[in-house]
Design brief:
- This protein is an alpha/beta fold.
- The chain folds into two domains: about 15-250, Aspartate Aminotransferase, domain 2 (3-Layer(aba) Sandwich), CATH 3.40.640; about 250-355, Aspartate Aminotransferase, domain 1.
- Helices cover about 35% and strands about 15% of the residues.
- The strands form four sheets. A seven-stranded mixed β-sheet has the order 2-10-9-8-5-3-4, with helices on both faces. The protein has a three-stranded antiparallel β-sheet with strand order 11-12-14, with helices on one face. Strands 1-13 form a two-stranded parallel sheet.
- Helix 1 (about 15-25) packs across helix 6 (about 235-250) and helix 7 (about 255-275) runs parallel beside helix 9 (about 340-355).
- The protein is globular.
- The structure holds pyridoxal-5'-phosphate.
- Pyridoxal-5'-phosphate binds near residues 76, 99, 166 and 187.
- Pyridoxal-5'-phosphate (PLP) binds near residues 75, 143, 166, 169 and 190.
Length: about 350
């Protein structure tokens, strides 16, 4: 019976991606070798990397001022690569969750970090508004989607200083104006590919300004010059990323994906708001994530927590247990999640209400 995969990451990928990856593990691009064992310098793999980079550029309309990179170390390596490459003395960060706080911690190794805005006072259940961005910082770092708490900034901020965004859990979920960002990064395992690679989009003229010597591997310029082939790249995740990008293009691109994501999020939030058993811990609908939908048992019904998880399990709904810092439930409804699976979850919530 079909499983409904709501895991937060690694998470659901298009069936297309998994099918094509399985085929390439057996016979890659007609070579009769596996993608697992072929040289990254082979013309077949070089073509994969080149196509993946150019499809990212096409889908996100990346301007010529920016370059696209596939790097190892996940999003967490970007927490130190960003300040290493961009911070002279001081940077500003939004503190909107655990991942943002982790980025802040790493930034402090390189200079002064200003918390420009924070939602820590309410367990990160909102996006700070009316923020005054200082102009004496080298960059402003935001986390566009807070995977654990279910909040999202789904618009492109106007920043007077270079803007850096961790888009690990919402990249490709909506069109973005790349020209507004100095740097965007995303670990692949939420919306793009298996873990093992991070996507980076960097404005070339934002680099080379710190005066700090930078070790070769963590210097973005190295990877720009080598077209992400300075050393052995994570070949399999990059291959899978290309399949997901192809799937995105074949399914109408990012705008079409955004429309589907909006419909899925509306279906689920409407049910949470209607159902007497559940509440969304993010009170302002404007702040609610379209990728990670958090909900908890309503006051008076807390004891039903385990019962709902059991009900979900019966219906092959997987991965909806909330992060320990929020509790309750979290349904991650990334690009590859079909609305039919969201409907199964909504039906489960309705049935559970009727039985209680
Ligand atoms: C998952 C996640 C990370 C961490 O990604 P890794 O690739 O495991 O380092 C960072 N930021 C956000 C927003 C995430 O969702």
């Amino acid at each position: 019976m079909k499983k409904h995969n709501f895991y937060a990451g690694p998470s659901i990928l298009p069936e297309y991606t998994i099918q094509k990856t399985a085929e390439a593990i057996l016979n890659f691009a007609g070579t009769t070798l596996s993608v697992l064992e072929i040289s990254h310098r082979s013309k077949e793999f070089v073509a994969v990397m080149d196509q993946a980079i150019s499809l990212v550029k096409e889908l996100l309309e990346v301007p010529d001022t920016h370059e696209v990179l596939f790097l190892q170390g996940g999003a967490s390596a970007q927490f130190y690569m960003v300040p290493f490459n961009l911070m002279k003395t001081k940077a500003g960060y939004y503190n909107t969750g655990v991942w943002a706080a982790n980025a802040i911690k790493e930034g402090k190794f390189f200079g002064e970090v200003v918390e420009v805005a924070s939602s820590k006072d309410k367990n990160y259940n909102y996006i700070p508004k009316n923020v005054t961005i200082p102009t004496d910082i080298d960059y402003l770092h935001i986390t566009s989607n807070n995977t654990i708490y279910g909040t999202q900034i789904y618009y492109d901020i106007d920043s007077p200083v270079p803007l850096v965004a961790d888009m690990s859990s919402d990249i490709f979920s909506r069109p973005i104006d790349v020209s507004k960002y100095a740097l965007i990064y995303a670990g692949a395992q939420k919306n793009l590919a298996p873990s093992g690679v991070a996507l980076v989009i960097v404005r070339k003229d934002a680099l080379g300004k710190t005066g700090r010597p930078i070790p070769t591997m963590i210097n973005y310029q190295t990877h720009i010059d080598a077209k992400s082939m300075f050393n052995t790249p994570p070949c399999l995740p990059v291959f899978s990323a290309l399949q997901t990008l192809t799937w995105l293009k074949d399914n109408g691109g990012i705008k079409a994906m955004e429309a589907k994501n909006l419909a899925k999020a509306k279906l689920l939030y409407d049910e949470i708001d209607r159902n007497k058993l559940f509440v969304c811990p993010v009170p302002d609908p404007e702040d609610r994530s379209r990728m990670n939908v958090t909900f908890v048992m309503a006051p008076g019904y807390e004891a039903l927590d385990k019962g709902f998880l059991a009900k979900a399990k019966e219906l092959n709904i997987l991965g909806i247990e909330g992060h320990r810092s929020v509790g309750g439930f979290r349904a991650s409804i990334y690009n590859a999640m079909p609305i039919e699976s969201v409907q199964v979850l909504v039906d489960a919530m309705k049935e559970f209400e009727a039985a209680n």
